Amino acid sequence: xxxxxxxxxxxxxxxxxxxxxxxxxxxxxxxxxxxxxxxxxxxxxxxxxxxxxxxxxxxxxxxxxxxxxxxxxxxxxxxxxxxxxxxxxxxxxxxxxxxxxxxxxxxxxxxxxxxxxxxxxxxxxxxxxxxxxxxxxxxxxxx
Length: 143
Description:
α2 (about 45-65) packs antiparallel against α3 (about 70-95). This protein has one domain. About 75% of the residues lie in helices and about 0% in strands. The chain is built from four helices and no strands. It has helices at about 5-30, 45-65, 70-95, 100-135. It has about 140 residues and is mostly helical. The mean pLDDT is about 85.
């Protein structure tokens, strides 16, 4: 039975959003100011398609990390890299082009929500579990 959790759903939603963004940038020529970042040799369509691949990779890694716990840190690292690169692109777009593409901004926010969700599930929950298990009160002896 397929079990899909929140992070996998968000990754797939982000893949659909970035696919739509690539389509808009290719056919409608939307976001003309942000379609080319000056110091990157690729245009916005390719960047959006790279985001689609990254989102699908996150969804697959997250799905299999539920079965194989050794993949959870790789999934967290991938989410961190995706969120960082998306932030870099947003900063570059804002400071060099002087505007923001709201589709790309939404995808960046979703990458950060995915990263925050994975950070909570992988790191923070395990730390709280260790803290709570180490602070158990020993039973009182009745002498």
